[in-house]
Amino acid sequence: MPKLISGFSKLNKQEKIQWLASNFLKENVNASEILSLYWNSDQQLQQLHDDFIENTISNYYMPFGIAPNFVINGKHYTIPMAIEESSVVAAASLVAKFWSDKGGFKAEVLNTVKVGQVHFMYDGDQESLLDYFKSKKEDLYTVTDAITKNMRKRGGGILDIELRNKTDELANYYQLHVTFETKDSMGANFINSCLEAMAQEFKKEDIQIVMSILSNYVPDCVVRAEVSCEVEKLHPTDGALFAHKMMQAVAIANVEPHRAVTHNKGIMNGIDAVVIATGNDFRAIEAGVHAYAAKSGNYKSLTACKVENGIFTFSIEVPLALGTVGGLTSTHPLSKLSLEMLDNPSAKELMQIIAVAGLAQNYAALRALTTTGIQEGHMKMHLVNILNQLEANQQEKEEVTQKLKGKVVSYSGVAETLKKIRA
Ligand code: MEV
């Protein structure tokens, strides 16, 4: 039975590690040594990371890579990606290069509306509630004046406040459904502060506020990206067949949720990697994107594919509520650098870049899946990882790679081959 502890947060880092080691780790696991390998020797930088969360005992490293050769709306980009999965950065780079001499990617932000809701219960007469809402609406804006002042200066703020009757779905349930424009900030704190101030103003004896919170479902904060070219340019020998298979792959994802989830997961490989690199909230993005994929009632592909008059077009439409100012974007040194290498984009420009990263990833996955299969590329990286685990040196790596060329890579197979070489 694990020990329970009170006042854990008051312990210092070493004490926390000691407690962890003595209660949850085997004696032969040297937690202090492993954890300290990943501490930063720069005290100030380490403190910055310690303070991001509670009970920090070290830093959790992830590879930070870059995918060059993206052309988006005529502008050149090198896209930063933080991701642990092999092949994702390579796939992005290859696809970027492929499309760079075919007009590149075109992207457009369709809208940027964010949403927050005050959820409340009311058991009285609906007409009286509507009258009360109408009489209060102006005050709901007034009580947020101080919070929205700076945002209004930047052209953002509260767009509208609506009273929504949800009693058909849940007895006595109503909402203040509030829409926002938050310009270059993701706006979570701003929205939540506005909502709490509104709730405070709106509540009365017969109105019970349940909660006030932004929504990560943002179907009106959507970006569209696409690539297109003549069908013949898609493939060295049979562009038409290639296009046909790509369309079939998307069609399958549109009717088969098992496939759609994996299809969209591949898209999120690209999206999340850039979202994380730029200091944005990938859980919010994930939740919003998957809800959007299911907006018709069936979970479907986020990408679309068509051929019209000999022109192949591959596109994506995704909701992305992002920020390029505030939060981690301005405190994490690597997020700052990521934004710097993207030429410090506005939130709208970042929406375009990230949608393109998702589209490129899906193009790469479908291209591989419908032609050579996905394992060919994966096996190469899988082999590298196994060789690293087995601590092979450079010469051993080359020899094993040569010997296993074209073969299915397994841990035992690699270990066996390495053993023979070493013998
Ligand atoms: C793996 O991370 C992503 C893929 O499974 C995506 C897909 O199947 O489309 C390759």
Descriptive notes:
The chain has 423 residues and is α+β, with helices and mostly antiparallel strands. It folds into 4 domains: 8-52, no CATH class; 114-215, Alpha-Beta Plaits (2-Layer Sandwich), CATH 3.30.70; 223-371, 3-hydroxy-3-methylglutaryl-coenzyme A Reductase, Chain A, domain 2; 377-422, no CATH class. The chain contains 15 helices and 10 strands. The strands form 3 sheets. The chain has a 4-stranded antiparallel β-sheet with strand order 3-8-10-9. Strands 5-6-4-7 form a 4-stranded antiparallel β-sheet. Strand 1 and strand 2 (75-82) form a beta hairpin. Helix 4 (88-100) packs across helix 12 (347-370), helix 8 packs across helix 12 and helix 9 crosses helix 12. It is globular, with a radius of gyration of 26 Å. The two termini are 47 Å apart.
What key phrases describe this protein's structure?
3-hydroxy-3-methylglutaryl-coenzyme A Reductase, Chain A, domain 2, four-stranded antiparallel beta sheet, binds (R)-mevalonate, alpha+beta, globular, 423 residues, Alpha-Beta Plaits
Brief overview, please?
This protein is 48% helix and 19% strand.
Strand order of the largest sheet: 3-8-10-9
Count of discrete domains: 4
Helix and strand content put the structural class at: alpha+beta
Query: Residue-averaged pLDDT, rounded?
Result: 96
Q: Using the alpha-carbon principal axes, give the shape.
A: globular
Which small molecules are bound?
(R)-mevalonate
Tally of helical segments: 15
Order of helices and strands: HHHEEHEEHHEEHEEHHHEEHHHHH
- The number of strands is 10
CATH class of the largest domain: Alpha Beta
Largest sheet: 4 strands, antiparallel
Residue runs with pLDDT of under 50 for 5 or more positions: none
Oligomer: single chain
Helix content: 40-55%
- Rg, nearest Å: 26 Å
CATH topology of the largest domain: 3-hydroxy-3-methylglutaryl-coenzyme A Reductase, Chain A, domain 2
